[in-house]
Amino acid sequence: MERIRITGGRVLTGKIRPAAAKNSVLPLLAASLLCAKPCVLRGVPRLSDVDASLALLRAVGANPVRRGPDILLPPAAVTGRVPPELAGAMRGSVFYLAPLLVRAGTVEMPLPGGCRLGPRPIDIHLAGLGAMGAEITEEEGAVRLSCPGGLKGTEFVLRLPSVGATLTLLMAAACARGITVLRGAACEPEIADTAAFLRMAGAEIEGAGTPVITVRGSDGPLPGGGVHLPLPDRIAAATYAAAAAVAGGRVTVEQCRPGHLASFLRFLRTAGCEVSAGPDSFTVVRDPETPLWGGIRLCTGAWPGFATDTAPLAAAVLLQAGGESRIHDALFQNRFACADGFAAMGAKVHADGRDLHIWGGARLHGAAVNAPDLRGGAALVLAGLAARGTTIVADPGHIRRGYQDLAADLKTLGAHCASLKTISDATRKTVGAMQMR
């Protein structure tokens, strides 16, 4: 089992830049199937979710080629059947519903997997595709779609601003016959990024990044292709910012878009950090001798609200803050599975459904903990930065879904942190002693 080892007490200093956003790269890889000419995605990190997407592309007949940080995506004939083991490996497999439906005329897919955050139905995806003319058959744990007459434009209202459903319907509408209007669409930056990619390939899209998106479809695959640099990962940027707040020090995040994580930076200011931002960078400063401020209430929401992916990161910041804080996640029922790990490190926390209660001021100590999911695992690593002694976070395979090497990133800032692929006898004894506490 892979692990990340963190020895706390090191102040962080330095500069770092986030990689391309995982939440943009995954739909962009799927959208490349809609393009009649080759596409290139620049600066794509080596994430396990990206590897799973590339495997899925190969399984349906495409031939993606990685050349260093870039991925070449030549056009290819594809099949509409997604292997169960690949669909179950990641939530992002849902992005292949529309592209495979357009290209193969039919798609058969088990329900997508991913982090165990609670129910994440794809009913909005299916309802929108059905409104565009798809015939849908649902079976236990799987779905089959076909469109013998091709997809047609429609006006569709999303019952809630689902990012995944907005992306699915945006891709479908780009290749449908006629005009599609999506109302109640998600407004996250990744929506506009995917729309920019589709426009590069010939799509006609207006309003991406607003609640109303209008698409004039091409009645088939898009005629073009091209080179696209996905936007910087705002959640990775928030992770580095949170690390500075937890450990103390001065960290500058470069080549990013501070406006994309404005709500998180406001939170850090409220918690007592000094935050300064420019057009493409920001700096977080915290004196490690100065206590953080708690008594904070946070509630996640759709863009531009407080992002659900940053909720566990905020929790890691608030573990040491004075006063009682509370975070409510409006999207996922099990967002705070990391609470058990926090408690094992000495934090005073209680997860109650969508709510996490934090009684701050805890003196954290090293412990052996498990990463329950991607962002919860990252939050446990951050908590380890402030803990006395050594923390070992087991199963960082979850973490590698969204960070190429989080331990290495933090190490560049001065953290005493390392990824362990093999565990020595001495480390096993350390882990065993921690688990006996």
Record the SSE blueprint.
Elements: E1 3-7, E2 12-16, H1 22-31, E3 39-41, H2 48-59, E4 65-67, E5 70-73, H3 84-87, H4 97-104, E6 106-110, H5 123-131, E7 135-139, E8 142-146, E9 155-157, H6 163-174, E10 179-183, H7 189-200, E11 204-206, E12 212-216, E13 226-228, H8 234-247, E14 249-254, H9 262-270, E15 274-277, E16 281-286, E17 297-299, H10 311-318, E18 324-328, H11 339-344, E19 348-352, E20 355-359, E21 368-370, H12 374-386, E22 390-394, H13 406-412, E23 416-420, H14 425-435
Parallel strand pairs: 2-14, 3-13, 9-10, 17-18, 21-22
Antiparallel strand pairs: 1-22, 1-23, 3-5, 4-5, 6-8, 7-8, 10-12, 11-12, 14-16, 15-16, 18-20, 19-20
Overall description:
This protein has helices spanning 22-31, 48-59, 84-87, 97-104, 123-131, 163-174, 189-200, 234-247, 262-270, 311-318, 339-344, 374-386, 406-412, 425-435, and strands at 3-7, 12-16, 39-41, 65-67, 70-73, 106-110, 135-139, 142-146, 155-157, 179-183, 204-206, 212-216, 226-228, 249-254, 274-277, 281-286, 297-299, 324-328, 348-352, 355-359, 368-370, 390-394, 416-420. The chain is of the alpha+beta class. The protein has 2 domains: 3-19 and 232-435, UDP-n-acetylglucosamine1-carboxyvinyl-transferase, Chain (Alpha-beta prism), CATH 3.65.10.10; 22-217, Enolpyruvate transferase domain (UDP-n-acetylglucosamine1-carboxyvinyl-transferase, Chain, Alpha-beta prism). The strands form 6 sheets. It has a 4-stranded mixed sheet. Strands 2-14-16-15 form a 4-stranded mixed sheet. Helix 1 (22-31) packs parallel to helix 2 (48-59), helix 4 (97-104) packs parallel to helix 6 (163-174) and helix 5 (123-131) packs parallel to helix 6 (163-174). Mean pLDDT is 93; it is low at 114-119 and 423-437.
